[in-house]
Amino acid sequence: MNRLSIKQLTIIPVIVVLVLLVFINYLMNKQLEDFAKSAHQHHLQTLLENASLFLSSDKYIPIQSIANKINHLHQITEQRYTLVDFSGKVLADSSVSQQDVATLENHSSRPEIKQALASQDGVGVAWRYSNTLKTNLLYSAKLITIDSQKYYLRIAMPQEMMFNSIKVYQTLFFVSAVVSVIIVLLVSWLIVQHINRRIKNDHYILEQRIKERTHEISSLNEISALLSSCNSFDELYSVLSQSCQNLFPEASGALAIYNSSREKLKTEATWGDSDNLHNFMFEPDECWGLKRGTSHIKHHNSIACSHNSSQAQFTNQLCIPLTARGETLGVLQFYSNQENYLDYHQVAVSTLSENLSLALAGLFLREELRNQALHDPLTGLFNRRYLEEAMLTEIKRSNRHGSPVALMMIDADHFKRYNDVHGHDAGDFVLQVLARCLNETVRSEDIICRYGGEEFVVLLPQATDIEAKEIAERMQQAIANSTLQFKDKLLPSFTLSIGVVMYPHDSEDAKKLIELADSAMYFAKNNGRNQVVCYADIRDKIQQQSLTEHIPVNG
Q1: Which pLDDT belongs to residue 531?
Q2: How far is Cα 482 from Cα 476, in angstroms, rounded to an integer?
Q3: Rounded distance, CA 43 to CA 156, Å?
Q4: Which residues cross the membrane (predicted)?
Q5: Which domains occur in the chain, in start order?
Q6: DSSP at 551
Q7: Residue 403: in which H helix or E strand, if any?
Q8: Which of 18, 197, 229, 450 is deepest in the core (most CB within 10 A)?
Q9: Given CA atoms 212, 215, 218, 223 in this order, what sign does their dihedral have?
Q10: Most confidently modeled of 111-115, 141-145, 331-335, 374-378?
Q11: Can you tell me the distance from the alpha carbon of 457 to that of 521, in angstroms, rounded to the nearest whole number?
């Protein structure tokens, strides 16, 4: 509703008041006239009663004396008195001289005289115009007896006297009406001003909300684009923290993601006053949102999630499960002390959670595909493709820091017989045992790759030849101590032949290092197997015997 229509609407009560005042004025005037008529009629009748008693108090009085008494009554009451005989002839009139009385016409046809003659009480009343006085009068006539003669005594009052008596009331009513209209106009004006202020305030609030919503939508679109463009989880966590801090300045929050075993969730990102939650871990059963599979908001007296016990200083808490492709990935958490803040922004938070779920699902899928592309499915170790990338990275790091890099080529001795005698499943089992032993003996920074078949390569950054040889011997010892219990039978043990090369001492080319390590490993196999051979120790022998061109032994 605009301002113009509101102003027009305020005219309605004024019109209603005016109509009511006109109607009430009509009713009041009618009532006042009726009341005045009745009161004045009663007054005239009283005067007639008193006058009749006054006139009939004496006996045998002449007409002149009666005329004098009538004039005397006129002087006392200021009313017109007329005495008419039974035939209608005027005998005396207080407003006409006695000489002119004879000229007055017969009054027998006057309404008040006729009514007095016809009524039982001998009283007649009439409202009519007087030709003698040239004005409207109220006439009241009464049949009286003087000296056993019947006469009509009539009294007349100007209607102006009656109307003058009610003018005071009409004036009071008019003043009241004017005051009422002024009050209605003033109240209407105040109402209009109040409504206009409310509308202006509502418009301002609506404009602010539209601006906020527009900013939210724009920000959410930008955040969605940024999240979908992230290439790593760390990048996504950074974008989320900064975006939530800007988009929801009155709220703190955190993002928790399931760990690899999906037994617990770990807080990976925080913003606002939630830094104490960083790296915090909790179980899924501690979150009502995860248990219910939908958003859970906690207000003052509602149930809070137990994993939020450290955030008890916030009266409002919101947990939103992050779900994509039918799988729950984590939970998005918001905290605020501002009343209804989370409720007001819940739509924006839900939209953000949906975009975040899709971005997380994309990163998880990308990581899964990358793991499949860079890992060997049988042993779980890195594959040959990853080795090539890792060697280039470690060689660059070695060049920057001047540190050595060791590389091992490992082969399981007589592995072929496991496949031939015990089957390929047994051979796969042996390779898995070998991969586990390698993982248990290398350092955390070392990189193990399955190169092909039963051959494995281990890349050892910042390791000397002595350290590399010690690690290789630990590998051999671990294999020797392992028990190959496959299904219901015990498989025979096996040994390892290991060749070791050093960067940059043996070669500065990654591909050449692989070839040299392979040559050192075959040298070990051709010279009794189950041994560790450093290429630097046999360089001269290999060159003399041209072992790089010979046909390697089987197994």
Answers
A1: 95
A2: 10
A3: 11
A4: 6-28, 171-192
A5: 6-163 (3.30.450.20), 230-370 (3.30.450.40), 384-544 (3.30.70.270)
A6: P
A7: none
A8: 450
A9: negative
A10: 331-335
A11: 11
| Distance separating alpha carbons of residues 117 and 124, to the nearest angstrom | 8
Query: Any residues with CB less than 8 A from the CB of 78 and at least 6 apart, and which?
Result: none
- The Cα angle at residue 502 between residues 499 and 504, in degrees rounded to 5: 150
Query: Quick one: pLDDT at residue 8?
Result: 60
Quickly count: other Cβ atoms within 10 Å of residue 240's Cβ: 26
Q: Which two tokens stand for residue 259?
A: 């760990």
Q: What is the pLDDT of residue 333?
A: 93
Q: Per-residue DSSP letters for 499-518?
A: EEEEETTT-S-HHHHHHHHH
Tell me whether residue 428 is exposed, middle or buried, using C-beta atoms within 10 angstroms of its C-beta: 0 to 12, 13 to 18, 19 or more: middle
Residue 102 binned pLDDT confidence (cut-offs 50, 70, 90): confident
| 395 phi and psi angles, rounded to 5 deg | -65, -40
Instruction: Give the residue from 460, 421, 415, 461 showing the smallest Cα distance to 434.
Output: 415
Per-residue pLDDT of 56-100, as tens digits, reads: 766 656 777 777 888 888 888 888 888 888 888 888 888 888 888
Count Cα atoms within 13 angstroms, Cβ side, for 236. Answer: 24
Residue 343 burial by CB count (10 A; 0-12/13-18/19+): exposed, middle or buried?
middle
Q: Please tell me the predicted confidence (pLDDT) of residue 555.
A: 56
**Per-residue confidence band for 165, with pLDDT thresholds at 50, 70 and 90:** low
Read out DSSP for 160-217?
Answer: HHHHHHHHHHHHHHHHHHHHHHHHHHHHHHHHHHHHHHHHHHHHHHHHHHHHHHHHHH
CA 493, CA 490: separation in Å to the nearest integer? 9
- Pairing of the two strands 496-503 and 532-534: parallel
With CA atoms as reference, report the closest residue to 257 among 240, 269, 244, 239. 269
Residue type for position 131? N
- In sequence order, what DSSP letters do the residues of 408-419 get, joined into one string? EEEEETTTHHII
Whether pTM > 0.90 for this model: the answer is no
